[in-house]
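Propose amino acids for all 431 sites.
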């Protein structure tokens, strides 16, 4: 992010315009379906938030640089180059008004990946110095400290100690040869340590060896959110190096949506090679344990509850049925929200929006889309599988004075584990 300039931003955008992006601009039929799919447009009715409009600077650069008609218009003075004012005008649309949820891409009748283009145009905006201060700060901390929230290893060790004392089970750190390496988000370390506790109890019951890496405990990839591939690559490489040094078979992405996208889908392309290990989301692992008979639960939740599908996990990751099979093990009164599953509405805080203080008001306005979904089902509990969604949902519910607890699915599963403590070893004998 150093040496930012408008010229550099334009060059970075030009570098992002590949054959796919060019075909997307060529094939757009201006149908408006992406507008109806966007929670920011729906809740503001501001045409600036129509998804395809958010990449208008990129479209202009594509037209002026790579089409005959665009070059002719430029020569005749009928169109102007993208300017610093354009970067200033679009910065809020590119970062504050888009959670990269991908709903617009899913409904596009000609298959344009508009969300992917917004991810790409952020590369140019960051290079031009037009990125939100909150995201710049989070990314700087991620690179320099190892965590976007500034969580250092001593704090992680302290939380590990608290959890170990609470459940009398070991939380392995840097255990070479373990089958699984578990990543955490800073929010799970500091706000939801019950996630770490749940993983420990589940792994113990399943009889699996696992570890946390002191060199790469953080799953959050702020480089992806701000749109700087070099920084995203560095953060992915840390995880890859740690996993390969420990010799684990599988890296588990935590209850964090974009972390899963970063390490599972973008990671190999960023570092330029395939991994020597598998990457699975925690829900995929739990569902695999379920199918193998390694996940034994007892009792059912009596409360009427529903499930919020995190966009990066469900719509972009295809993990839609896994959480429902898991909920079927522990929930008696599960109901689906309207537009559940792959078409679920974003919590409004994804894609770095929640780390962008400037976007707070717009985020809460957009949250009304989620509020409408929840009002339709009138539940007692809301379950999800993303710490960032959980924080955003809790903030939105509090803002709109909705008394509704939000629970992580991994945590809920752990609460219903069959108690095997009399027959199983405690902390000193754990794998």
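Proposal:
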């Amino acid at each position: 992010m150093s040496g930012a300039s408008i010229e550099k931003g334009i060059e970075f955008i030009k570098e992002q315009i590949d054959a796919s992006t060019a075909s997307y601009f060529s094939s757009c039929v201006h149908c408006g379906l992406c507008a109806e799919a966007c929670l920011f447009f729906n809740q503001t009715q501001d045409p600036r938030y129509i998804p395809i409009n958010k990449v208008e600077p990129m479209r202009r650069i594509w037209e002026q640089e790579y089409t005959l008609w665009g070059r002719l218009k430029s020569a005749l003075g009928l169109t102007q180059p993208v300017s610093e004012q354009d970067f200033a005008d679009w910065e809020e649309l590119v970062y504050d008004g888009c959670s990269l949820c991908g709903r617009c891409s899913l409904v596009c009748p000609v298959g344009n990946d508009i969300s992917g283009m917004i991810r790409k145009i952020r590369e140019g905006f960051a290079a031009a110095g037009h990125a939100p201060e909150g995201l710049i700060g989070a990314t700087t901390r991620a690179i320099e400290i190892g965590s976007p929230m500034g969580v250092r290893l001593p704090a992680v060790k302290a939380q590990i100690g608290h959890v170990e004392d609470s459940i009398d089970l070991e939380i392995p750190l840097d255990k070479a040869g373990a089958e699984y390496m578990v990543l955490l988000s800073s929010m799970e370390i500091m706000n939801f340590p019950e996630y770490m506790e749940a993983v420990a109890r589940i792994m113990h019951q399943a009889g699996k060896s696992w570890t946390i890496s002191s060199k790469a405990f953080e799953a959050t990839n702020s480089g992806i959110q701000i749109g700087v591939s070099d920084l995203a690559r560095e953060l992915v490489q840390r995880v890859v190096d740690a996993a390969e040094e420990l010799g684990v078979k599988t890296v588990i992405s935590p209850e964090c949506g974009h972390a899963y996208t970063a390490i599972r889908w973008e990671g190999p392309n960023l570092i330029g090679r395939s991994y020597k290990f598998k990457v699975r989301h925690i829900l995929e692992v739990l569902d695999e344990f379920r199918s193998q008979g390694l996940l034994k639960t007892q009792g059912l939740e009596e409360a009427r509850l529903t499930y919020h599908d995190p966009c990066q996990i469900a719509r972009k990751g295809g993990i839609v049925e896994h959480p429902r099979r898991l909920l079927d093990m522990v929930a008696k009164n599960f109901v689906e929200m309207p537009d559940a599953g792959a078409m679920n509405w974003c919590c409004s805080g994804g894609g770095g929006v929640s780390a962008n203080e400037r976007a707070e008001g717009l985020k809460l306005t957009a949250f009304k889309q989620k509020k409408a979904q929840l009002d339709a089902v009138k539940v007692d509990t809301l379950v999800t599988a993303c710490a960032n969604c959980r924080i955003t949902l809790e903030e939105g519910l509090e803002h709109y004075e909705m008394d509704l607890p939000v629970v992580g699915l991994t945590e809920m599963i752990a609460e219903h584990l069959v108690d095997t403590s009399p027959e199983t070893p405690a902390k000193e004998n754990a794998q």
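The mean pLDDT is 94. The first helix runs from residue 6 to 16.
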